[in-house]
User: What shape does this take?
Amino acid sequence: MAGVMALAGCGGSASGSDGGKPELSVGSAYMPQPVSDSMAAGFLTITNKGGTQDQLTSVTSDAAGDVTVHQTVGGAMQEVDHLAVPAHGQLVFKSGGNHLMFDKLKRRPKQGQTILVELHFAKSGDLKVEMPVKSATYNPATGH
Ligand code: CU
Assistant: This one.
């Protein structure tokens, strides 16, 4: 169960309320078929057509006991509480950068299957995403 996280208001300069709402859509989702029985990575792109930024606060999936959001900083990955989806911008998850980590997999995802993922946002609520499982070599190794 995800506890209530202390969301320190990320008071960015772009956080002015211009009356707009975030308008989120998700594309390019995929999971490289994992080599591990217990862990997998996932990638996608979240696009915000609205004039207000949003924040990805957590991720859940039927396929995994635990999903975390990781950032790659200077070649090392670190878990983050949330990531901003900028107004009129994108939040990109890709190999070598931001990625989702699926932990405690209920069963090992295979190429051709689809993983159901739920993205939870501070303002937009929940977004369901179907994440196709691609070949293990679909993308370069993420280093873990
Ligand atoms: Cu990671």
Observations:
- The longest strand covers residues 64-73.
- Residues 70, 77, 99, 101, 144 surround copper (II) ion (CB under 6 Å).
- Residues 25-134 form a domain with the Immunoglobulin-like fold (CATH 2.60.40.1890).
